[in-house]
Amino acid sequence: MTEDMNSITIEQATQTKHSTLGHWVAIIIILVLLGVSALMNIGLIAMLVTENLGSSDVSSKYTEELIQGKGRKKVVCIEAFGIISLAKDSSGFFREPGLATRIIKQIDEAEKDDNVIAILLLVDSPGGGVTASDIIYERLLKFKSSKKGRKVVALFRDIAASGGYYISAAADKIVAHRTTITGSIGVILSSYNVKELGEKIGIKDVTIKSGKYKDILNPFRDASPEEIQMLQNVVNDLYNRFVSIVSRSRGMNTDEVRKFANGSIFSAPHALTLGLIDEIGGFDSTVNLLKELTGTKKFKVIRYKKTMTFFEIMMSGMNVNPKIDLPFPARWKSQTPGFKYLWQPEL
Question: Which residue range is the domain that position 96 belongs to?
Fold first, then answer.
């Protein structure tokens, strides 16, 4: 009996010893992992500091991709594809600068390069924000005036409507594919009214405001005639700006422009007869046109490719709370109304 009890005691002691040893092994492994993690973090911080000290402008890191041609002189191909906006776009887990911001940065890069003689603006866009479109337009004009002889030529792809046409008005010449849809010159402000729906399902609006117009376009009430007129006045001002841009760019008087600047869209052949574009063609004919305009027969056509630094990746706004997108028009998803140079036919 005594021997059995001694045997049990020895076995328990052995188990306790093994258990304690296992705990210490686990603690040591955790400490090693924490140490490795700390060293990696220190290394990443060192990389960020070194990278930023080595570059005064982190956002200007572009590489050049050759499209065609050769020589020292360059034509930069800049793509205006999609909705023209200054707001950031979501891309995977990260948020990228909006299309307008990306275009402006590429124009900045082109302007700094003395070998750049022209910009080839590829447009496939239904338009977008009024301010975003206007900023790109003005920036292209500044590029042309930055150095004698610099040119801008726009080449339309599938769609170059509204704001897509607005930014192209800064070009010296506009070329469109035969199947391009363009036009839609005008301004739009969209909202929605759910007053009756709210009444049916028992939703009541509670708005505390400092003035009677402060909640203009509140979706839970009808807009007053005064509010409609106020918004129409703003639309008219922005529309007049658009008309004047087209008038100046295309060498027409404003009355002539207003005849077709009513939101209508046009095929490329129709746009040509109206004087909205200069010719129908493709990439190669546009390059030949650039040779004529710049007086340079030998140049290379390039595009910029953005190389994101580690710092930019780390500082990007991460989409940690992805949302489920319902099949509604993009304008319905916006939290605030906005004045747009935009063709939006979707239902």
Answer: 59-342
User: Is residue 46 domain-resident?
Assistant: no
Instruction: State how many domains the chain has.
Output: 1
Contacts of 9 (CB under 8 A, 6+ apart): none
pLDDT digits (tens, 9 = 90+) for 91-149: 544 557 889 999 999 999 999 999 999 999 999 999 999 999 999 999 999 999 999 99
- Give residue 104's identity as a one-letter amino acid code: I
Q: Is residue 2 part of a domain?
A: no
Here the CATH number for the domain that contains residue 221 is 3.90.226.10
Q: Which residues are catalytic?
A: 162, 214
The answer to the question of residue 51 being in a domain is no
